[in-house]
Amino acid sequence: MAAEVSVVVARAEPFREFDEFYAANYQGLCLQLLVYLGDLAEAQDVVQEAFCRALKKWQQIGAYDEPGAWVRRVAWNLAIHRFRRQGTVTRFLRRQRLEVVPGPDPTRVALIAALATLPPNHRRAVVLHHMVQLSIAEIAQQEDVAEGTVKSWLSRGRAALAAQLDQEA
């Protein structure tokens, strides 16, 4: 009987570690991707999918120095894929002459539209730095690029956003 209990406890331990990891990282990652995707449900779906993939490989990923970086990368890759697919769907719907209902807040809609015009690297840098409050060093580490590259992306992204938003105003 005692052996059975120890087996159950041993099986539950990795899941406890994963539960703590999930609780510590889920909300922050959702916020990052909410700003990037512009839709809370999409962001939650993407983050949930990334955590599901991490759970399947938790014994390996849990041993990493920074398992959050792995989940973040997977979530961002999924978000980029969905963002591209969303553009394809929008173009299809426009060709079908279906009416697209604008978002309720014109400022938010303008910002999301302006962000959508940026190249993906610039958009990620702007979102991560200005909306998620990551430092340039943290973004460089996450994106696996030099800090100068992140500074360049931010500079170009801000300039393009300012031009877009000035043009709309």
Automatic annotation (TrEMBL):
RNA polymerase sigma factor 70 region 4 type domain: residues covered: 109-161
Record domain RNA polymerase sigma-70 region: where: 34-87
Xref: Gene3D superfamilies: 1.10.1740.10, Winged helix-like DNA-binding domain superfamily/Winged helix DNA-binding domain
Alphabetic keyword roster: DNA-binding, Sigma factor, Transcription, Transcription regulation
Family annotation (CDD domains): Sigma70_r4 (cd06171)
Sequence similarity: Belongs to the sigma-70 factor family. ECF subfamily.
UniProt cross-references to PANTHER family, sorted A to Z: ECF RNA POLYMERASE SIGMA FACTOR SIGM (PTHR43133:SF50), RNA POLYMERASE ECF-TYPE SIGMA FACTO (PTHR43133)
Name used for this protein in its record: RNA polymerase sigma24 factor
